[in-house]
Amino acid sequence: MKKVIYSILLTLSFSLYSETRPNIILIFVDDMAYGDASCYGGNLIKTPNIDQLAEGGLKFTQGYSISSVCGPSRVGLMTGTSPARYGVYWNPDMGAVQIPNERPLLPIQLKKAGYSTAIVGKWNLNNPSWDPIPAEKYFDFTANTMVWEGDYWPNKNGKYHGVNDKNYGSSKTYGKWGPEINEEKYLTDLLTHSACEFILKSHSNPFFLYLAYNAPHTPLQGKKEHLSELSHIKDEPLKLYASMLKSVDEGVGEILESLRSKGIEDNTLIVFLSDNGPARTNYLKGYPDDWPDVMLVAGDNRGLRGKKGEFFEGGIKVPFIAYWPNIINANSKNNKPIYSLDLYPTFSSVAKIDLPDGEVFEGLDLFPIFKNNSEELDRNNMIWIGDNRKRKSGAIRINNWKLVLDKRGKNHLFNIEKDPLEKHNLIQDEADKYQNLLEVFNKYLEDFPPPITNRNK
Predict the structure, then answer these.
(1) Is-above-0.90 flag for pTM?
(2) Is residue 121 within a helix (H) or strand (E), and if so which, with residue range?
(3) Structural domains of the chain sorted by starting position, each given as residue range(s) with its CATH number in brackets
(4) Do residues 297 and 307 touch, judged by C-beta distance below 8 A?
(5) DSSP label at 280?
(6) What is the pLDDT of residues 28-54, one digit of tens each?
(7) Is the pLDDT of residue 271 over 90?
């Protein structure tokens, strides 16, 4: 009897989906480690709202970003293809990035399907000195956008350095706890409030909301109201980082509450992930000399090797959660390798619009996995390309074999299934496997132009 009732409910939910296009919310956080959230084993702070997404949806244990640094990861996310296809290999290339008009960015693709679109937070595809890709060109609604990083507390003029201005980055002021004035708002909270405002105004039509938190990216700044809950953390930088994570989690809770207040939670797909792994912060400008080196790597990678800027697992493996009541089974877990390039074709499928003709997409449609967690992915490989000005760098994964081309000139071969922490370099033992992966990587790289910042050199 239970099976019959479940079958009827499933049929009804699919029928409802076939008649309406669901809302889509993409929450893209900045420099958050794979294991920071409680649902991924993190124990620095509790993240009940992010956990709620995982408990009510699908948690991927092998989710990746397409890059180990901020800018290229966003080019890949918005285009659905390798950022190297446009000469974007590393953050310096963002100063001159150009995307051909025939390649519709994700919000334009969803507009064609009848969605209203919004971006709140970090855009990173533009630059104050070179701005061919302003967010306003692609989204119906923009709020609190920033090129790269912004201060979390306003200055004496009430402005957030790096946000809605022509400043490329923050003031590099570390260690600030606010507010200093009661009316001041923390930037992460401001982004959340703008996102909720859009939801409340747009709930009657299908919408795409790109909520791009810049937290927990530097500068390390926190909220005084969190201090009592963080008293167990003794190191000041780590305490600030925890506050930043906590604010993101609070934001996720407010987003869910806004959806519920309008009765649209069941018709909304939420995807949560990070742009890359955690950063090393204590070498950056602004890091106080009297702070400890505890923040050598900011987040909790659960033992994974590497960090932001590297193609070991710690640099590219990220928290990756999909939440969609009545479509995705609650408390599901999936161990298939997926990455951020999959979101463009997935969102297109969810929105019932074909991918643009004649364009290359390396990603796969995850919608079948959302509906049926046992569905297989027909994926040949996953390839990441890094800063190739001096030497080839990046990584390639075919099945459980992963080759890392270190920017320092040393290559590494791992069996990820047997050695997820990448401790054992198998190049000598698996020479044929090494050569095979290297050949595929080099062949793939032949299709791409040189770094955009090097073309005239």
Answers:
(1) yes
(2) strand 116-122
(3) 22-371 (3.40.720.10), 382-454 (3.30.1120.10)
(4) yes
(5) P
(6) 999 999 999 999 999 999 999 999 999
(7) yes
